[in-house]
Amino acid sequence: MHFVQGTAYLAAWGFLDHLLDEVPEHSRIDGDLVGCWSTDPPSDAPIGIKQVYWTRNVWEEPFLLEFDSISQAAKALRGIQRNWAPYPTQLHRRTALIAEALPPLPLKPKAFPFVIPAAPMGSFTLLDEHMLLGSAACSSPFPNGEFSFVEDKAGPPSRAYRKLWEALLHAGAMPGPGELCVDAGASPGGWTWALAGLGARVVAIDRAPLAESVAALPGVSFIRHDAFTLRPADIGPVDWLCSDVICYPEALFDWVSAWRESGLARNFICTIKMQGPHFDKSTTDKFAAIPGSKIIHLWHNRHELTWINVAAGEH
């Protein structure tokens, strides 16, 4: 086994084109896995991990492993760590046989809330019958960045609540009982339902009404209005400012900026929704430049990214 210089990026599902725009100088593509690495001897300027957004997992320390047999490959991986997720792009049966010789992975749907696993989750793929590309260090603790929740099919009026649940896990914090949250673009109420379920008080804002079942939840109040035309002073101090509004990213940034300048919001979770087929990288970079920010493509996102900014001490 020997390490290579660089990184491999596993594209967010359905958005390989955006990832390729972000890393045009890649060395190879295997399925949705974009390799930006070299087997050349180390140079004075090693290839590092750059800021990219449209990924579901990043292979941070890729290595090449030459092997003669399935058992030899599995033994080598087990010798590094326990958890390995296969990402087959060819030789599917051979990949599956190696995976079967490794400890099983926790793949069952997870009940919210839960603590993100601390144990590392490695990844591997076969480049040919006797060469494996792997990485023990990956950005996601879930196999290939994929996981599912135990869903509530009766309470929420939409499935959008899964995005907020996932964002809160990545935030490492969540609203507590009695804390005040704003849910901008709330209708029909998936995020409001999720926030109220945590015991938080929620001011839901939208021009369309909430589902009756959500509007009736304890601690929920509704303002029928365009959230972006309300000034922060009209609402006052809030613990969590959340937005799943369908709007241009620049409009979201201007709204967030007004709240940040007011000092009336402590924590932010906002969906940056792309308009049309294009990726607004310039505005996304503005969000990323805000101190303390994290921007990720959630497994439950579509053509959108999620901006998370949690106040110091909330983690």
Structure, explained:
This protein has a 7-stranded mixed β-sheet, sandwiched between helices. It has a 5-stranded mixed β-sheet with strand order 1-6-9-8-7, with helices on one face. The chain has a 4-stranded antiparallel β-sheet with strand order 3-4-2-5. With 315 residues, the chain is of the alpha/beta class. Helix 2 packs across helix 3 and helix 4 crosses helix 5. It has 9 helices and 16 strands. The longest helix has 14 residues.
Would you kindly provide a brief summary of this structure?
With 315 residues, this protein is an alpha/beta fold. The protein has 9 helices and 16 strands.
Descriptive keywords:
315 residues, alpha/beta, Rossmann fold, seven-stranded mixed beta sheet, five-stranded mixed beta sheet
Number of domains: 2
CATH homologous superfamily assignment of the largest domain: Vaccinia Virus protein VP39
What is the 3D form? elongated
CATH topology of the largest domain: Rossmann fold
Q: Quaternary arrangement of the chains shown?
A: single chain
Gyration radius, in Å: 22 Å
Q: What is the CATH C level class of the largest domain, in words?
A: Alpha Beta
End-to-end Cα distance, whole Å, is 37 Å
**Spans where pLDDT lies below 50 across 5 or more residues:** 43-48
